[in-house]
Amino acid sequence: MGIVSFFSGLADPLLSLGYLLYLLGWDAGLHLSNYILPKKQPGAVIAKGVGGHGGKWGEFRPPGPDDARSPCPAINALANHELGEAVGATYNLSPTLCIQVPWLTAKFLFAGRDWEGKMTLDDLNAHGAIEHDASYTRADIKWQPNQGVPDVDIIRGLYETAGFDMDKLKPTDTFKLEHFSKYLAYRRAHSKVFNNQYIMNRNGKTFGCANSAIAFDVFGGNAADLKTWFIEERMPDGWEPRNLTRNGFTIARLNTLYVSPSTSRPHPVAPVRSTGGTSDPHYLSLNQSYVLMPILTGFSKSSEAFRAREI
Fold this sequence. Notes:
By secondary structure, the chain is mostly helical.
């Protein structure tokens, strides 16, 4: 039994590595061809027959008390429009990214569990796997046990970081990736100070930073559209992905998005409360800088699409 377990344990990472190399090779081809092939035309980014074609999203049905939701706005928004099976086509994500993310997710969530089981939206709320502390749309699980719903105060902090009035957005208000980087660094530093149960493992860093990059690119940084998506978890009326590439947003594209300069938060920063949102007279003074750095996405729990590094 010991020998069988040894070889079984050895086979999984080797097979995973082989599959990852195949996936990255395929993705490289898709990414390069995006520079050659003509872009999709506005109004036809989403194919006919797929929900959201032409900006028509159908009926919006917010979740009821018995409906499960995940910590991910992208998945929840599609579930609220009953479009859960069309994630890649809806957001114009490459087939390789749409394979990699569920694959890694399943490996994290089903470690030691029966692979025959079906994954539900509620499974994604398992703490420390996909769901993580210091999110820019949720308070930490210590204060918000239900991670399936957004926290408006937390989201407002992102808009304040960018210098936007979330209640009076201008058509020209557009996020930069640096805004996400600054706010993620701030959220992590804040949680370290106020949350005595704070956990930030490599999975949390991976998904927190990768989700920021994907949301930024798919929405083109549009602050008004992102507000609808973040808070209501609804697809904006008439919206379609801003990424017009023929093969969609690739793994390679994900790994090229980064913020090179250090991002410092002045002290004291915006008021925060111990529950993670704004409005209480707690101030966090930071004399630290953070950099968002790209790294090749791997197959194991040690992989990160981006790493937030304190310097």
